[in-house]
Amino acid sequence: MEIAITILQLLCAIVLILTVLFQSGSKEGLGAIGGMAESFVTKSKVKNFDSKLHKLTIIVGIVFTIATIALNIISLSK
Predict the structure, then answer these.
(1) What is the C-alpha to C-alpha distance for residues 52 and 40, in angstroms, rounded to an integer?
(2) Per-residue pLDDT reduced to its tens digit, 24-46
(3) In this structure, are residues 52 and 46 in contact, taking their beta carbons and an 8 Å threshold?
(4) Directed axis angle between helix 2-22 and helix 40-77, to 10°?
(5) Which of 3, 28, 32, 41 is disulfide-compatible with 37, CB 3.0–4.6 A?
(6) Whole-model pTM?
């Protein structure tokens, strides 16, 4: 059981790192001033993808936390 939870925690850590890295930044920077801003269509697609990544990050973070607590309880009971 401990090995399965450890593997789950490792997979969650990898997915959590990837979802955070794939999220776009919250600021446009100076690109909007110079006319390099994205169009409305691409911006809405990016926001939709970012919202899915945000939800996935929250879910995986909760699973990671539960797995960490479970591993701690298992190790204390030995």
Answers:
(1) 18
(2) 776 654 444 555 555 555 566 66
(3) no
(4) 160
(5) 32
(6) 0.73
